[in-house]
Amino acid sequence: MAGELVLAVDDEPRYVEIIRFNLETAGYRVATAASGEEALEVFTAEDPDLIVLDVMLPGIDGFEVCRLVRERSSCPVIMLTAKGAEEDKVRGLRLGADDYVTKPFSAQELLARVEAVLRRARGEAGERLPVPITVGDLHIDPQSKQVTVEGQEVRLSPTEYRLLTCLAENVGAVLSRDELLTRVWGKAYKGEDEILRVTLFRLRQKLADDPAAPRYIVTRPGLGYMLAAASGP
User: Fold this and answer.
1) 3-class secondary structure per residue, 92-115
2) Cβ–Cβ contacts within 10 Å for residue 108, how many?
3) What is the pTM of this model?
4) In the chain, N or C: fewer CB atoms in 10 Å?
5) How far is CA 68 from the centre of its chain?
6) What's the angle, vertex CA 95, arms to CA 91 and CA 100, rounded to 5?
7) What are 52-62's pLDDT values in tens digits?
8) Are the CB atoms for 8 and 28 separated by under 8 Å?
9) 182 contacts 95 by C-beta, under 8 angstroms
């Protein structure tokens, strides 16, 4: 399902044109920005459905733009990183990015990542959580897509919410890394343990769930992860 508005942010005109051409050919609408400041202005004015955001920008860099966007919105973000810059990928994911694409990239790779992230944002990936679930002080309401801990709302990105509900759909059962990657991100992400590890780290932070003494998300070394058995109504 195309037609969504994508904000492409890069200070290299050739990359902006590559992104614009390929996304518009696929049926998306595209807005552009060449700096962090301009990206924030366009984001506020246009309210895009997704942002493709380069790390290296003049003025406010992509990391800061991602952080500021995430403070205000759950709009999905795909970071553009340089080849071999693993620390940039991890930093972007920890700041709330949903995915990353490494430069140089192919049109097919970019479109696949955009489609996968938007599909997760629309809630189309995998099954739907059929009923509300409570694990200790954690409550997930699939109707409103609201997550609360001790009665306080926890705002999650679409990917974080999808990961949590995937675990909740299988509460008490261990899911392997590849199973989670396939269910939440898609088959093309199988083996990308880093994106799962960092997203779990971010999710646990938001839930105030200490990995050393977890209340909710439990690690089974060598096996995978599970949501602790449900309790409550």
Assistant:
1) HHHCCCCEEEEECCCHHHHHHHHH
2) 9
3) 0.81
4) C
5) 15
6) 60
7) 999 999 889 99
8) no
9) no
